Amino acid sequence: MKLLEEMILREGKILPGDILKVGSFLNQQIDTKLLSAMAEEVKNLYKETTVTKILTIESSGIAFAVAAGIAMGVPVIFAKKHQSSNVDGEIYSVPVTSYTHHNTYNAVISKDYLTSEDHVLIVDDFLATGNALIGMIELVRQAGATLAGVAIEIEKGFQGGGDKLRAQGVRIESLALIDSMTDESITFR
Amino acid sequence: MKLLEEMILREGKILPGDILKVGSFLNQQIDTKLLSAMAEEVKNLYKETTVTKILTIESSGIAFAVAAGIAMGVPVIFAKKHQSSNVDGEIYSVPVTSYTHHNTYNAVISKDYLTSEDHVLIVDDFLATGNALIGMIELVRQAGATLAGVAIEIEKGFQGGGDKLRAQGVRIESLALIDSMTDESITFR
């Protein structure tokens, strides 16, 4: 998506450890006009596909998921991060290891909010190694729901998580897909 | 707001400790049609007021803040919660004690995203004792910005935080204002 790529080139900052800082328009501060345009793009990409629910994981994916949910007119559900695996009965749960924060948490959702009738679009801000996404796909599987696809704001293609899942047949639409990133330049696929 | 009050009466669950559970439509799962209607209501309530930015605190206020930001066409900024007060230079920071989680954290925002030019609408999901809100008002004050007002999804009026701030001249618009809550009934103001 041209608009997002231009914004990344203009406002993004590359930090050590392959971190792309987009705090001025996607994270700490959100440009809601850009966000709306991205949500419309997701709606358009999935217009031929049945989607009954959007799933994301707290907290950095919430803004994009809510914008997409508003654009598409479907409910949004959040997987919550629990430090302990000691959470009670009526939930789906999966352990996820965070690349950014170097820890492992359990992603959980209540069984009340995801059923085998649902067609789920998973939405998140970043896709790198794909650990959070693999966890969310597992939650969809546990519920017996159908995975409609995935929508990502920014994919770091060079970290390989997205292509591994595409090879398994998962539909992933990334609005900006970065193939390489150095201090001097960013190359989009 | 009638629509929200009806939803609270139909779907809300009252738990021990004056907890109102609204997970099925506001928290864990978000009814995006209701959320859009609430955002339009906020836009309408503040239509005579200059608003250049929406401020919320992660993570439960993000959905409502983003919806309001989209409706009003202004950027949204998030105060982040830091466990330590040992955060570096270019930030505004204030300690907040959480009623729900029985802990104290620092609410921080980068100085890049809030300036003395800004007219700030603070948006949050719940207002009870008002500690998080008082913290956000302090961040606005530190930046030398103007407080345009406050928009809340659900205020627990019987916990007094909202009325204390109204008495100090803060404009607070709560879309549902609960005056009393028992196992059998909820009374709105």
Strand and helix map with partners:
The structure is a homodimer of 189-residue chains.
Chain A: H1 2-11, E1 13-15, E2 19-21, E3 29-30, H2 32-45, E4 53-57, H3 62-72, E5 76-82, E6 91-98, E7 103-110, E8 119-127, H4 131-142, E9 146-156, H5 161-167, E10 172-181, E11 186-188
Parallel strand pairs in A: 4-5, 4-8, 8-9, 9-10
Antiparallel strand pairs in A: 1-2, 5-7, 6-7, 10-11
Helix pairs in contact in A: 2-3
Features:
homodimer; 189 residues; alpha/beta; Rossmann fold; eight-stranded mixed beta sheet; two-stranded antiparallel sheet; 5 helices; 11 strands; 29% helix; globular
Question: What report would you give on this structure?
Answer:
The structure is a homodimer of 189-residue chains. Chain A is 29% helix and 37% strand. The first copy, chain A, is of the alpha/beta class. Chain A has one domain (2-188): Rossmann fold, CATH 3.40.50.2020. In chain A, the strands form two sheets. Chain A has an eight-stranded mixed β-sheet, with helices on both faces. Chain A has a two-stranded antiparallel sheet with strand order 1-2. In chain A, helix 2 packs across helix 3 (62-72). The longest helix of chain A has 14 residues, at 32-45. The radius of gyration of chain A is 16 Å and the shape is globular. Chain A starts with a helix and ends with a strand. The relative contact order of chain A is 0.17. The mean pLDDT of chain A is 93. The interface between A and B is medium-sized, with 30 and 30 residues. Strand 5 of chain A pairs antiparallel with strand 3 (29-30) of chain B.
